[in-house]
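Exercise 7b. Backbone tokens:
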């Protein structure tokens, strides 16, 4: 816990700075860029039936979008109002009416022809639904029938045969906490959340490197730091309000560095709608972009450290903060020896960067008195994601960029609900304020809750899905899956396998505000749909935790209510009482206020949440800086410098490394078929012009991307992506990603692989031969050889 408190928002400079302008032509006319004014008008029109309510949500509620932490139109970083089109796009989820009955009860085959975007636009789920085996329509159910159906099944199951999952869709800390408590009361540790497929390696790596599981700094630390590094993060697209912080940082002289395989246009320049100067003339953001190979980040960082140690050999103190390292770290000699044995040929080949380019960034960081490292799924969604993040921590520890102003490690979150999920215990490895593996934490929670916790290790969500296909006699054969939001058909690798898993469960429960494609799949006994409230409808309000650990209160907002929808936490409590009526007295959690009071006891760093009750109430968990003054909450109080081996990334000649990217979307919810920053369509494959030329591919030409796991039909989109690498949109490209490949420490699925790219006409011309199978076998053989 840091002793320094956040000092609140600061003002932007009033005088414009033409040096940062992208163009003197107003509003970027003629350039490929988002049309913010047009889009805002379109969203206002979509919400015209509930416009006063929409305005109240925007001005009174906590942002429903990313985890930058905007309450109403204001945050704790910059004075003045903030708004972005991501938040505006999500707004309609809260204001749209209920689905019309004739659509809700249509034949399941008719509904199944709709995309998730089309299903979302139908409206809100108004009342409980049940569809049993063989039935072709959902029928209306009472809450008693729906919950009694689930409870009866649960009572007859081994607790290892049921699982809970919570997405980040507007879910509050209160709901995460109650779900975690209910799961353990019912005897299962099979509970997981959306961070498993985005930032779980960030938590595990930061815990082992510096003893904390969240951002060590604030957004304010961006503003005035010497160097701000975005590593595998396209914040301008995924967290658009962050561009305002980048603008403020640029005005203070901060150098912004981007490290990514694709030269993302939105990180180079942006028209920030809530800053008049930027809205008119745009803002140059990135000072430099280092295009690294997909999966080449560890080599890049080993190269940086190799340069530093070489600088130290020539001139001690020129690259490493020896006072900080001596006082606050362990493992320097092991790390030095490990880096010394790395050869430059391997480092440059793996990273895709020359020794000169690696040395450039090493020198920039060595000269910097301060730096903040920001990262996202470009680093985490690898089978070596935890090692990636520990490498970032190594850089920060060697330079002393930790525990003070304008310094820190920041895993930037993509959803306003997700930071609190593990901290509330909705995680197979976590308890509120602690870890399942800690005897002290288990004893503390058992005393507070009044019942014994299950002692066996719960499964991550990927394994949970795999367990649905286990033989009938297996102890962990998944029979009941209770998911609050989420659509695994569009988020997990290998959609064909996911479909098989979801349809092979006895009962599947979808607690949600809208339908999606996974809701419509069959189950062996029944599919139960429970209508949930949004965060703005929940009695007593709710809280969410931002990337920078700000815990915001979002009040209940007056407005229309949808049918029989209930607060998420209230549904969990009601279900638990039906499954175990004899233990009902142990549940508590009778109101949002009571839940917050209990959270304050269960999670010590959340002491203060019990006092949040009015619009605008906020406190910061852990203070302004974690590891303040370099003191880490590790057993010896020191950060750990860890030697990290290069991952094996052999890629056969003529094949490409592929990764997924986001377009105009919020998580898996797609809002446009065209990316406003590069005009790429959803099935466009981003490929370097020289790679396209080498394959005799023309712009827009039909191609097939394939490997041993699946295939994707797309079109050539020449772009400034690192040669030898291609990018496809997520989730459209998930068919290429192997199932069952998880990062060993955090369990995140691998979202990167090797593929073949061919003209569609060539691929299909050989479809009646064993050509494709031979090509795939060649790929696999060469990768194993």
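Sequence design result:
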């Amino acid at each position: 816990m840091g002793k320094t408190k956040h000092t609140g928002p600061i003002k932007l400079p009033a005088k414009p700075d033409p040096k940062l302008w992208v163009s003197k032509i107003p509003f970027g006319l003629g350039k490929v860029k988002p049309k913010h004014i047009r889009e805002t008008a379109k969203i206002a029109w979509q919400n015209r039936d509930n416009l006063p309510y929409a305005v109240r949500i925007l001005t009174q509620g906590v942002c429903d979008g990313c985890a930058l932490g905007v309450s109403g139109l204001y945050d704790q970083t910059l004075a003045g109002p903030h708004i972005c089109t991501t938040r505006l796009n999500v707004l309609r989820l809260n204001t749209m009416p209920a689905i019309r009955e004739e659509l809700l009860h249509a034949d399941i085959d008719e509904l199944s022809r709709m995309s998730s975007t089309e299903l979302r636009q139908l409206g809100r789920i108004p009342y409980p639904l049940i569809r049993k085996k063989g039935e072709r329509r959902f029928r209306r159910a009472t809450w008693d029938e729906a919950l009694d159906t689930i409870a009866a099944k649960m009572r007859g199951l081994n607790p290892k045969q049921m699982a809970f999952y919570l997405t980040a869709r507007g879910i509050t800390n209160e709901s995460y906490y109650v779900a975690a408590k209910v799961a353990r009361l019912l005897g299962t540790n099979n509970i997981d959340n959306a961070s498993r497929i985005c930032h779980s390696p960030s938590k595990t790596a930061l815990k082992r490197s510096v003893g904390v599981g969240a951002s060590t700094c604030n957004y304010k630390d961006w503003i005035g730091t010497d160097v701000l590094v975005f590593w595998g993060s396209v914040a301008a697209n995924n967290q658009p309000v962050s561009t305002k912080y980048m603008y403020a940082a640029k005005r203070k002289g901060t150098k912004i560095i981007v490290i990514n395989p694709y030269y993302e246009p939105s990180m180079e320049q942006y028209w920030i709608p809530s800053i008049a100067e930027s809205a008119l003339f745009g803002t140059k953001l990135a000072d430099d972009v280092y295009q690294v190979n997909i999966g080449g980040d560890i080599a890049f960082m080993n190269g940086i450290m190799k340069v530093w140690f070489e600088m130290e050999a020539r001139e001690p103190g020129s690259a490493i903060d020896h006072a900080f390292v001596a006082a606050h770290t362990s493992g320097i000699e092991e790390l030095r020896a490990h880096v010394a044995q790395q050869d430059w040929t391997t480092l440059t080949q793996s990273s895709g960067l020359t020794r000169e380019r690696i040395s450039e960034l090493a020198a920039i960081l060595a000269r910097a008195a301060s730096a903040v490292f920001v990262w996202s799924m470009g680093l985490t969604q690898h089978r070596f994601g935890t090692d990636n993040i520990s490498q970032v921590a190594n850089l920060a520890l060697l330079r002393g960029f930790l525990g003070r102003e304008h310094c820190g490690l920041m895993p930037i979150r993509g959803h306003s609900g997700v930071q609190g999920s593990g901290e509330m215990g909705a995680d197979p490895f976590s308890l509120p304020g602690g870890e399942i593996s800690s005897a002290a934490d288990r004893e503390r929670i058992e005393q507070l809750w009044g019942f014994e916790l299950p002692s066996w290790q719960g499964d991550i969500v990927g394994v949970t899905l795999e367990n649905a296909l286990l033989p009938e006699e297996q102890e962990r054969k998944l029979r009941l899956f209770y998911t609050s939001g989420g659509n695994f058909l569009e988020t997990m690798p290998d959609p064909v396998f996911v479909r098989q898993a979801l349809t092979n469960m006895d009962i599947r429960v979808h607690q949600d505000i809208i339908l999606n494609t996974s809701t419509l799949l069959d189950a062996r006994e029944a599919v139960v749909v429970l209508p949930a409230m949004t965060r703005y409808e929940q009695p007593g309000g709710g809280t969410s935790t931002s990337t920078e650990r700000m815990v915001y209160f979002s009040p209940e907002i007056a407005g229309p209510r949808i049918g029989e929808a209930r607060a998420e936490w209230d549904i969990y409590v009601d279900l638990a009482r039906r499954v175990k009526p004899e233990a009902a007295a142990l549940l508590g959690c009778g109101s949002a206020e009571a839940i917050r009071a209990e959270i304050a006891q269960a999670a010590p760093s959340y002491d203060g949440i019990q006092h949040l009750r009015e619009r605008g109430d906020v406190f910061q968990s852990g203070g302004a800086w974690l590891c303040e003054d370099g003191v880490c909450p590790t057993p010896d109080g020191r950060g750990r410098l860890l030697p990290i081996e290069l991952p094996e990334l052999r890629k056969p000649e003529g094949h490409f490394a592929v990764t997924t990217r986001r377009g105009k979307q919020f998580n898996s919810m797609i809002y446009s078929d065209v990316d406003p920053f590069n005009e790429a369509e959803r099935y466009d494959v981003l490929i370097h012009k020289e790679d396209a030329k080498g394959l005799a591919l023309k712009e827009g030409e039909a191609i097939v991307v394939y490997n041993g796991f699946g295939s994707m039909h797309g079109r050539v989109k020449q772009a400034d992506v690192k040669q030898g690498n291609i990018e496809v949109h997520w989730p459209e490209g998930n068919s290429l990603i192997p199932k069952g490949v998880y990062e060993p420490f955090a369990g995140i699925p691998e979202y990167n692989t090797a593929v073949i790219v061919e003209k569609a006409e060539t691929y299909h011309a050989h479809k009646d031969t064993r050509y494709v199978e031979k090509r795939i076998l060649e790929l696999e053989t060469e990768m194993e050889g």
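Instructor comment: Residues 168 and 418 are 5 Å apart (CA to CA). The first strand starts at residue 129 and ends at 132.
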